[in-house]
């Protein structure tokens, strides 16, 4: 195709409203400058407590200002991408590459096999030539229960794939589809077929769940497939040989659905585990899949998903290929990142689990300055970039040549010869985990890997189609949410304090704006100290009669009022613009404070202990199932406090401290002869305490009024009251 005839496969459009945002940002910056001037000009010359309280608050405000600057960087210049899959089909249908899809699971008790199976079926049913699809499941739990679910999925796919095409099913995960779809009523024959497939699915699901509850595979089932013999040699999930089974060989002419159409290749892998060898968690699992798949299918494009992240859009592959196969810009793209969305969010997002603002406003900003970070799921990779290859401007991809490579070995031979690629010792004295594949040594291996790819000259693209590409499961309890955020923030801070810090590792390798944008996430945990100070110290000072803010009647109150209210109003506008509700925004603000005073605090000190050599890296899997009572309360937007945790001790103690301070302030206003003077001097501090009390209303409800199992444990209630009273007493005397 000549340059004059070139029509792009995707379009880039700048985000509207950038000039307005820049004016708004300039006004916030001016307000921050006035606040700094006030803090310096009116520095207290009185007692030591006043001075140090003032200094601490000023340092906290400087930190908030710096972090606001980081969040403003990606918003300064953002773009949206729009793929044209019809153009792809018209021009390059015959050159479509093979796609290898990696799904990772680790524990059948936390990640139920029935859920994993639904995810597998959703990607098997993509609107894409099935002979060019290969699906790989990495089972780090080494469970025969998961293997059984895969076998059932392979059998059911013979009915499910033609059913999806005939009924134009969306989404193509059977669990998600049958949960919401209505029975067709226009054709008796179609109704019969629809009910038949639904019955098949429900029977299969019931069989898998029954077997999972029993926690064993019956002898009758074991006789159905040779793969079950592998578990005769398994000592435990941490001590076993490589188990590799090709359940469907897409090259086999007999591997067809009920209509005689070919099925995708389906592979089960449980890599070798031995107690004396570190297995590097999900990164090690992904690297084993990269090596094994290179011998079985070797698709030039790799999609990786978490086991709960099912395909919600059957066109996602073609949308992503519009980027990779664009004749002018495609060759420089290493990966296409889709957003991480969830299908179990409540209307008002009680735990603030959606990333709607990040996805709508921050990631498009990263995209405009070199590309988004790799978030570990929902990402299409160019295999050669993931394997460590540097970007070469001169080289052009020949998709026809990539598609001509044929694997000659039989499935049984491949099963035997590829096992060594997933052994514990294969990576010794190699570049795997260093320069090849996903990097090791940090809980956020995905972020390091994406940064390393960009550092080698590649770019990445953020793609957010109108219909979400993937949907997963968000945590349904507060403790799960806090633990998940602790893991993320801890890994990101560890990354910032390592040689992989974007400001050092990316220096002169990636754009400066992108280096700063990475710091937004790397410094999540570092927000804990400033937030904790702002939540606690003004309350203590209020009890002691120390004013930390301008008088209400003083003009210097205006910068504080403008920065706070304008910034929060803008935050609300972003949230509503991205599809949220006002109550949802309020819940996000609450979780913002909860995370910063608990999850981020624990992760901050865990990292300090790691640096001092007192702690080791761990990987915590977020539980994907909840009992019926918990689920019911979650759907009712009731926060789940029904567990003992040091995080809850902190939350409850801070809430009681805010309550006692507010009561003390109100008492002072009522008893003081000059009410207006007290309100004038301490107005902003009182307002801050009352705001914190409002945010903590669900905590008070859980401490004193709720009777269900989601209430705060009595031990937490007792400790919080004692600690808060003790702190207030020491402050006053």
Question: Which helices and strands, and how do they pair?
Answer:
Blueprint: E1 10-14, H1 18-41, H2 48-75, E2 79-83, H3 85-92, E3 99-105, H4 113-124, E4 133-139, H5 144-167, H6 174-180, H7 188-214, H8 219-222, E5 243-248, E6 265-270, H9 281-296, E7 301-306, E8 310-311, H10 316-324, E9 333-337, E10 341-342, H11 356-368, E11 379-382, H12 383-386, H13 399-403, H14 411-417, H15 445-455, E12 459-462, E13 470-472, H16 478-496, H17 502-505, H18 512-522, H19 527-544, H20 557-577, H21 582-611, H22 628-635, H23 646-671, H24 675-695, H25 697-705, H26 714-732
Helix pairs in contact: 1-2, 1-20, 2-11, 2-18, 2-19, 3-10, 4-5, 5-7, 16-21, 19-21, 19-23, 19-24, 19-26, 21-23, 23-24, 23-26
Write a structural description.
The chain has 733 residues and is of the alpha/beta class. The protein has 26 helices and 13 strands. Strands 5-6-4-3-7-11-9-12 form an eight-stranded mixed β-sheet, with helices on both faces. It has a three-stranded mixed β-sheet with strand order 8-13-10. Helix 4 links the parallel strand 3 and strand 4. Helix 21 (582-611) packs across helix 23 (646-671). The longest helix is centred in the last third of the chain and has 30 residues, at 582-611.
């Amino acid at each position: 195709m000549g340059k004059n005839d070139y029509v792009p496969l995707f379009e880039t459009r700048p985000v509207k409203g950038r000039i307005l945002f820049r004016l708004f940002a300039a006004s916030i910056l001016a307000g921050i400058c006035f606040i700094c001037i006030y803090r310096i000009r009116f520095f207290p010359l009185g007692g030591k407590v006043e001075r140090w309280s003032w200094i601490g608050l000023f340092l906290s405000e400087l930190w908030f200002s710096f972090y606001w600057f980081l969040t403003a960087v990606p918003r300064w210049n953002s773009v949206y991408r729009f793929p044209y899959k019809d153009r792809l089909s018209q021009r390059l249908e015959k050159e479509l590459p093979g796609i290898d899809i990696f799904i990772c699971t680790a524990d059948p008790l936390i990640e139920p096999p029935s859920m994993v199976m639904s995810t597998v079926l959703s990607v098997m049913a993509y609107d894409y030539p099935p002979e060019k699809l290969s699906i790989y499941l990495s089972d780090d739990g080494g469970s025969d229960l998961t293997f059984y679910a895969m076998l059932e999925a392979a059998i059911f796919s013979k009915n499910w794939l033609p059913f999806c095409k005939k009924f134009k099913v969306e989404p193509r995960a059977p669990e998600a589809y049958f949960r919401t779809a209505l029975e067709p009523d226009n054709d008796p024959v179609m109704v019969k077929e629809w009910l038949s497939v639904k019955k098949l699915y429900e029977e299969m699901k019931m069989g898998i769940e029954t077997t999972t509850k029993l926690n064993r595979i019956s002898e009758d089932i074991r006789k159905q497939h040779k793969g079950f013999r592998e578990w005769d040699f398994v000592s435990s999930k941490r001590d076993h040989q490589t188990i590799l089974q090709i359940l469907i060989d897409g090259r086999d002419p007999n591997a067809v659905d009920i209509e005689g159409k070919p099925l995708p290749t389906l592979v089960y892998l449980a890599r070798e585990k031995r107690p004396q060898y570190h297995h590097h968690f999900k990164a090690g699992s992904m690297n084993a899949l990269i090596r094994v798949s290179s011998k079985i299918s070797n698709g030039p494009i790799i999609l990786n998903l978490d086991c709960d992240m099912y395909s919600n859009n059957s066109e996602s592959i073609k949308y992503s290929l519009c980027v990779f196969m664009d004749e002018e810009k495609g060759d420089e793209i290493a990966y296409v990142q889709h957003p991480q969305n969830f299908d179990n969010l409540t209307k008002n997002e009680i735990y603030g689990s959606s990333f709607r603002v990040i996805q709508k406003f921050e990631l498009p900003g990263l995209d405009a300055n070199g590309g988004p970070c790799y978030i570990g799921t929902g990402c299409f990779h160019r295999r050669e970039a993931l394997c460590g290859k540097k970007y070469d401007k001169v080289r052009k991809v020949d998709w026809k040549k990539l598609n001509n490579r044929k694997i000659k070995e039989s499935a049984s031979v491949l099963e035997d010869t590829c096992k060594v690629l997933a052994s514990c010792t294969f990576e010794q004295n190699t570049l795997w985990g260093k320069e090849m594949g996903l990097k090791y040594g940090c809980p956020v291996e995905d972020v390091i890997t994406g940064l390393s790819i960009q550092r080698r000259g590649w770019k990445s693209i953020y793609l957010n189609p109108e219909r979400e590409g993937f949907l997963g499961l968000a945590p349904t309890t507060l403790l799960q949410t806090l633990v998940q955020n602790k893991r993320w923030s801890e890994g990101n801070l560890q990354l910032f304090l390592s040689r992989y810090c974007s400001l050092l590792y990316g220096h002169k390798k990636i754009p400066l704006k992108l280096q700063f944008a990475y710091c937004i996430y790397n410094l999540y945990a570092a927000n804990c100290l400033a937030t904790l100070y702002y939540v606690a110290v003004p309350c203590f000072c209020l009890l002691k009669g120390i004013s930390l803010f301008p008088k209400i009647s003083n003009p210097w109150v205006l910068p504080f009022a403008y920065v706070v209210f304008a910034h929060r109003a803008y935050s609300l506008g972003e949230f509503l613009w991205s599809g949220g509700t006002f109550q949802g925004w309020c819940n996000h603000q609450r979780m913002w404070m909860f995370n910063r005073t608990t999850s981020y605090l624990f992760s901050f000190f865990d990292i300090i202990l790691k640096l001092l050599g007192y702690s080791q890296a761990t990987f915590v899997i977020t539980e994907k199932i909840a009992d019926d009572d918990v689920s019911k309360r979650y759907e009712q937007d009731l926060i789940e406090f029904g567990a003992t945790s040091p995080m809850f001790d902190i939350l409850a103690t801070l809430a009681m401290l805010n309550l006692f301070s507010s009561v003390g302030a109100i008492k002072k206003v009522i008893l003081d002869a000059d009410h207006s003077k007290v309100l004038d001097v301490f107005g902003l501090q009182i307002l801050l305490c009352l705001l914190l009390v409002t945010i903590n209303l669900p905590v008070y409800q859980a401490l004193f009024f709720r009777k269900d199992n989601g209430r705060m444990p009595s031990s937490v209630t007792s400790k919080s009251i004692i600690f808060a009273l003790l702190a207030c007493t020491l402050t006053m005397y």
